[in-house]
Amino acid sequence: YNGYFRRKMMEYISAKEAATKWKISQRQVAILCSKKRISDAMMIGNMWLIPKNAEKPADRRRLSWTEDKNVFAKPFVKWAGGKGQLLSEIHKIYPKELGHKITKYAEPFVGGGAVLFDILNTFNLKEIYISDVNADLINTYIMVRDNVEEVISVLRGMDEKYKTSEQEEKKKYYYEQRDRFNLLKFNGVVDENIEKAALFIFLNKTCFNGLYRVNKKGKFNVPIGSYKNPLICDEKNLKIASKLLQGVQIVCADYHESLNFIDENTFVYIDPPYRPLTPTSFTAYNENSFGDEEQVELGRYIDELDHRGAFLVISNSDPKNVNENDEFFDDLYKRYDINRIDANRMINSDSKARGKIKELLVKNFEE
């Protein structure tokens, strides 16, 4: 009997191993087992075991776009350089086969995810991959996907405390939460990732201009903003976003890591840190710089994706806004279709300089 049992056990893997194999969370594996979505999965003690040859069940949960077409998720964080205002222009140039021949989507600089949520709201794709080098942002995406009720519970308390306080108390509370976030940012305690995600959203909604900026030590250092009634805990949107994110691969990684996911059936939107138009342009999203050398390296990566047959859209600043002779991106992306579109941006620290400028949308396919 014991020999038979040992042989039987060798035919199974743990939920953790299955999660790694299928690139989903261990919690999602457990849910699939409990709903009998994985044939012959069994529980020994408090541990799920999955047959080695079991295939990942088809995702049935990212279906809210078909259930109610008037209910859409939107980004749950603000992000410098966010694509909300350009979304209609980007949407216009999605490849025609998206949702048909093109069944996969990748966004290796996800940021606030305006394009991601437009894709999730509009198409029912087989596989979606998002990544970013910002570990705190990625943790927030994962916690919203996997533990949204817990995130909302913590965030609701922060919302109530902040909005019922007088101005000086608000300020004190904000900086206390910023200190707490920086403590959790470095202690690496997994059990505190839900609180860290809630703090990330709280600080994003209440800090100056919704910026994410860190000092040389990697500590978040943005001061409090001046919003009168910020929407800190948008429960409805968080729940819809969580449902749409089910089955999405969410990875903290450099954009190079997306290479293994991308093939000829993939639409890829690439929105790197913009090349600054002026010395005062904000590009310090994290402690890593992204200068001209990094833009050129990204260009080589884009060429590699193009050779794979992927469908690509790339956005960036247009240096011709300040120097009509600057051919940096015209040279870098000369193989592709370069479009210049209107955008409202602030191109220096003077708020009076806000106005219409051009941004680039580059693509490698015919419309």
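Second entry:
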Amino acid sequence: TTLCHQVKGVKYFDCELPSVRRMLEDPEHFLREQGKALIVLDEIHRLTDPSNVLKIAHDHFPKVKVIATGSSTLAAKYKFRDTLTDRKRDVWLQPLLVSELGIETTSELNHRMLRGGLPPAYFAKNMSESFYTEWLDSFWGKDVQELFPVERKTSFLKLAELILRQSGGVFEANSFSGPCEISRQTVTNYLEILSTTLFALLLRPFDRGRSNEVIRAPKVYGFDTGFVCYAKGWNTLRLDDFGLLLEHLVFNELLAHFDRSSIYYWRDKQQHEIDFILKPSRGKEVHVIECKSSHRSFDASAAAIFRKHTPLGGNFIVCSDLSKPEKRTISGLHFTCLPLQCLPRELAQTAR
């Protein structure tokens, strides 16, 4: 919505408004009136049959270009009766990226971690908890309550809160069942809703077919660091908090630049773990990405064990205390240590 309002010459229609929904009850008449134009249909999932409107626009009104936005992917899955194959391009917007904000100092990174990456929170003069509470109320009312058969609001919102508070951890459904007072299966069902609406981001384990590797349990991240800090009650950050939140920002960068199916984490049954594994669809290279608050406090033992059987690929350490990339050799492995804003460029160069 923020970006759409900034597009020059665009005609903006908010489908939350009953008057706009009435206009779109006759899509042919509506589109004919637009002539040759670029239009925004914001919150398009609020329409009764959104896919039909877009199909008619594409097939019969090629001079009308449409940007359709929606806050819920699951709404689109349930309401879109036509998949619109070859008629649309999907864009998944991440919270504001460190690489696009031009963040260079620790204080700027601290601000991004605490406030999160939604524009109203990031650019506000003063930090306000009301933004997060109002957003969560809206999420429940618009993205969940109207679209899914969630019988227990309190349990659902408790699970959402716990996911934010334990963000970045391995997800075990049984550990949430008691605090949320629901069955293990219901926890799994609710997690699917939170994942499909992009509130919770699931990171699958990397599977090389070896018996000593964890291959089932995903890690679950809250979609935005501001909401993670809000759920944890953090108003300031300690040094120990940077590593966890840095993982979230790295995950956001990876999701913005690479296909979701190419991003994993790795862990074996001896508790050796690598924060992120990136395996592009083409080629045999597998990239190792670790996140550390300081480049001086890195243990390369997990990477060394992983590389014994998967030697091809780059090794990266993303650090919050560096201003430019540095090359280091640790435990016989060559690493590129770098600040977060340099990660997309370095990965792109390695891929070439």
